[in-house]
């Protein structure tokens, strides 16, 4: 932990006063003192902006493109994202279920661990100091609220990966989770229990929501790069869903979309998923063309129309069995090629591109000359899905069907209110979730939290490419190993506390 936190302390100096790519260098030759960083509310705001820039910063190589790279890795570990072939190494070891179980892997295992602790460490500096900064109390409250929400979000991401799943039937969840880091101290912390981590996450989110009470629900453009009260409530809904706390998940999923309940039109749905001004986006990032790395970025790997070597030979596909479950009247079916010549005309043309049935066109850069684009982190659609799933799992089938209806009807004009109950209704909601959130970084986490098997068998996954076709629920490999550098450098953990 110690080396990660020193690294994070350097980053806040590097990010404070500039948005340029050069200022995101993780090894600055000179830094701004903490006193300068927190000498005014304006400077504190710039420090906060720096954390958001961390989310899309590339760290040392193409594998490590901030949170966007982690989103791709997590979907690659599921069954709904399908690789065309084995060419190029990016996200490949995640697809094959190797990187997360290799404690010496730097590009996925250690990078993910380091990345979220960088966010946490920078947030801690703001949380600890903002109350003593000269300035308007209301402004300071919002800055602190955003920092608390970011700290909670980062701990939440980490505990889902490196700890065992939260199980509401086993209380308390005493299995080892991750170190809780809520101060700027560089002293290594032990692994806390999963229960303790979730307790801290909820504490931070509750305080964040209180601090963000005055933030506007409806926002456009660059304002959506920052967390407001609706996004913080969206985090609460996500956390409650993982904890199987159905009433809290329902409550906060409803409140998260209050005042912003604008699902996108069908025309917007097929427009490329790269515009933060989309009415349905709650939180995302804008990666300007002058800040995109020379190689890499989310859209260099996930777009359907940027002409990169990776996308030419390895278009990303949807699971063929999942595709078959999408009604032909559903706009979402149009995001993947049905294999016909007629439908091929609806998809971008890239010279020398491999053309494969089920290839997507969900993500498209607005300018084919650059790999830059906005990336969605939270959308209103997810809140409908959380509410519907929580209602269904709580046994409230009628309420679950009603909760799902607005979203499902928006995507498919022919959709009618479901009369299913119990497991059949839950299954339908999960299919809706899988289709809706394809490529947005949720699938591995959804499989783990629901204690479901990974099953790629009988689909368009190829054994020689995928390596792993089936992993039973509860298998030790659902836990990511703690990075070896952390084991070696943090005496509060040590080899004895590595995951099995």
Automatic annotation (TrEMBL):
Belongs to the SusD family. This is RagB/SusD family nutrient uptake outer membrane protein. The keyword Signal applies. Gene3D superfamilies: 1.25.40.390. Coiled coil: none annotated. Residues 55-241 form the SusD-like N-terminal domain. Residues 1-23 form the signal peptide. Keywords: Cell outer membrane, Membrane, Signal. It comes from Mucilaginibacter terrae. InterPro entries: SusD-like_N, SusD_RagB_dom, TPR-like_helical_dom_sf.
């Amino acid at each position: 932990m110690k080396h990660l936190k020193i690294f994070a302390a350097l980053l806040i100096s590097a990010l404070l006063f500039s948005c340029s790519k050069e200022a995101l260098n993780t090894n600055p030759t000179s830094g701004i003192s903490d006193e300068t960083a927190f000498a005014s509310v304006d400077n504190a705001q710039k420090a906060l902006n720096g954390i958001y820039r961390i989310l899309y910063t590339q760290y040392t190589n193409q594998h490590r493109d901030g949170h966007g790279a982690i989103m791709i890795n997590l979907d690659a570990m599921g069954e709904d994202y399908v690789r065309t072939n084995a060419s190029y190494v990016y996200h490949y070891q995640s697809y094959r279920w190797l990187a997360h179980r290799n404690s010496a892997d730097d590009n996925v295992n250690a990078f993910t661990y380091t990345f979220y602790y960088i966010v946490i460490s920078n947030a801690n500096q703001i949380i600890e100091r903002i109350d003593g900064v000269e300035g308007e109390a209301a402004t300071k409250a919002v800055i602190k609220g955003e920092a608390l929400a970011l700290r909670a979000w980062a701990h939440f991401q980490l505990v889902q990966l490196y700890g065992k799943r939260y199980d509401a039937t086993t209380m308390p969840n005493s299995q080892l989770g991750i170190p809780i880091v809520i101060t700027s101290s560089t002293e290594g912390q032990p692994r806390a229990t999963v229960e303790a981590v979730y307790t801290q996450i909820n504490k931070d989110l509750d305080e964040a929501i209180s601090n963000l009470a005055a933030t506007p629900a409806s926002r456009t453009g660059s304002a959506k790069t920052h967390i407001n009260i609706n996004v913080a409530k969206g985090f609460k809904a996500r956390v409650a869903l993982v904890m199987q706390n159905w009433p809290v998940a329902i409550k906060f999923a409803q409140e998260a979309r209050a005042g912003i309940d604008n699902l996108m039109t069908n025309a917007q749905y097929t427009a490329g998923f790269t515009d933060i001004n989309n009415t349905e986006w709650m939180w995302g990032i804008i990666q300007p063309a002058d800040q995109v790395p020379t190689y890499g970025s989310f859209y260099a790997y996930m777009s359907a129309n940027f002409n990169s070597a990776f996308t030419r030979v390895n278009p990303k596909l949807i699971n063929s069995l999942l595709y078959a479950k999408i009604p032909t009247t559903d706009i979402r079916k149009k995001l993947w090629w049905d294999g016909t010549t007629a439908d091929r005309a609806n998809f971008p043309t890239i010279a020398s591109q491999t053309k494969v049935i089920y290839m997507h066109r969900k993500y498209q850069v607005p300018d084919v000359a650059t790999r830059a684009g906005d990336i969605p982190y939270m959308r209103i659609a997810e809140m409908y899905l959380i509410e519907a799933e929580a209602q269904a799992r709580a046994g409230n089938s009628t309420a679950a069907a009603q909760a799902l209806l607005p979203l499902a009807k928006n995507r498919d004009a022919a959709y009618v209110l479901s009369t299913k109950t119990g497991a059949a209704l839950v299954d339908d909601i999960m299919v809706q979730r899988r289709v809706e959130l394809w490529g947005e970084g949720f699938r591995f986490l959804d499989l783990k939290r629901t204690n479901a098997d990974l099953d790629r068998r009988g689909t368009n996954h190829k054994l020689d490419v995928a390596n792993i076709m089936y992993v039973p629920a509860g298998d030790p490999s659902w836990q990511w190993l703690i990075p070896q550098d952390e084991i070696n450098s943090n005496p509060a953990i040590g080899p004895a506390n590595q995951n099995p």
